[in-house]
What we know:
0% strand, rod-shaped, Par-4, PRKC apoptosis WT1 regulator protein
Amino acid sequence: SLDELDDDDGEEKERKVEESLTQQNTVQNESMISDPGAAYLIQDTPRSRSHKSEEEGNRHRHRQGREGSGTAPTALERRMEELEKELAAERQENGRLLKAHQDKDELINKLKEEIDLLNRDLDDIEDENEQLKQENKTLLKVVGQLTR
C-alpha cells in the first residue's frame, strides 16, 4: 500500500539522519580524545547549533503532528522515541567513559612524574655509591700501607 511505501521512505530518511549523527559523534569523540580541552569548541560550533535547532524543530513538528492528529503513535514514531532514549543513554555513558578516561590519563601523568623522580633518586644513589666505593678503595690502600 502507499502507507507502507511512505514508512519505508521515512525509515530510510531516519537511517540517513542517524548515520549522519553517528558520524558527527564519532568525529566529535575522536577530536575530544586527541584534544580534551577542545571538546567545548566542537560541541558549540555554529554548524552544530544549526543542526541541533533543526533537529529539535523536526522533533517539535513531529510531536505537534502526532498530538494534533489525535491518533496513536505509529511504529516509526515509537521507534524514534526509543532511539532518542537510547541516544540519551549512550551520550550519558559516553560522558561517563570520557570522565573515566580523563581520570586515568591524570593518574598516568602523576605516575610518570613519580617514576621520573624515582629515577633521578636512583641516579643520585648510584653516583653516591660509586663515590663511596672510590673512597673505600682509597681507605683500604691507606690502611694497607699503614700495616706494613
